[in-house]
Request: fold
Amino acid sequence: MKVVIPGGSGHIGSILARSFEREGDEVVVLSRGGLGGSWAAELAGADVVINLAGRNVNCRYNARNRREIMESRVDSTRVVGEAIARSIWPPRLWLQMSTATIYGHRFDAANDENGIIGGDAWRFSTDVAQAWERALDEADTPLTRKVKLRSAIVMSPEGGGPFDALLRLVRYGLGGRAGDGRQYVSWIHYRDFVRAIHWITDRDDLSGAINVAAPDPLPNSEFMAALRSAWGVRVGLPAPRWLLEAGAFLLRTETELVLKSRRVTPGLLLASGFTFEHPTWPESARDLCTRWRAIRREIRVERREHDRSKLSRLFGHHRDRDHMGRAHAASPRSRLSS
Reply:
């Protein structure tokens, strides 16, 4: 099977690419820089297209960034749709990345796929999500099944991802509640995210909007407490809203990323028979912390081996020179006295 992943060079794309390659599939990752003709050429003959292209939302929402966020999502979706429409052998499945942020900010009940869209103070994000999905709906691809992946935050132990950033706060004693801590956090363990993508790929009866989220969203205060417990830290300094606003300004980001309540549940996945390996956050946090530590141990071992190899090559080179009579490095003592 040929799987094409536009915008797949980031955190989520790398996880998905490795999972399909382990299955023996051919994976082609397309960068956003090639948007246009080169994308169309690679999409020809693809079995599955997973479009992840879109500018990172971890920035200040000034006029320029708003425009780039909107255009990067809508334009890339439109290009994929046009390429599929022109294809003689179109892919059987188009998985289009969307976001759980499309649902409204609420505390009273969870949003399944029939939940409340938009209607909150953070209008820009919901507008982007709706325009993103509208571009998919408007694509004339009758022979291709289309799925909107309304994904929650994908938690993996790899560096640079959301979990790594949250764990950094905990490790430095800053992992307390954000704001009043009442806002819900929707998340999904990376292994379940990958399994859900394969599940959707294999099920021809699944289409339209699908919430890709664990069934256990929980308030930010409980979410961070579980992460602290998993790491073995009892206390984390809370961050009141005024401090978050100041920090977001300095870090060139937006407080919406931590203050909006995203209470999302995977209605269609559960109804289709999908089961989660990691359905609850406390257990998932413990698993991710264990994996995070294992990865860092491997990195440290690799660095030590690299350093030893480098020193071995260096001293081996000196010994070769000694043999030729050009230096005196036959022993530690002679090196010091030379």
In short: The mean pLDDT is 89.
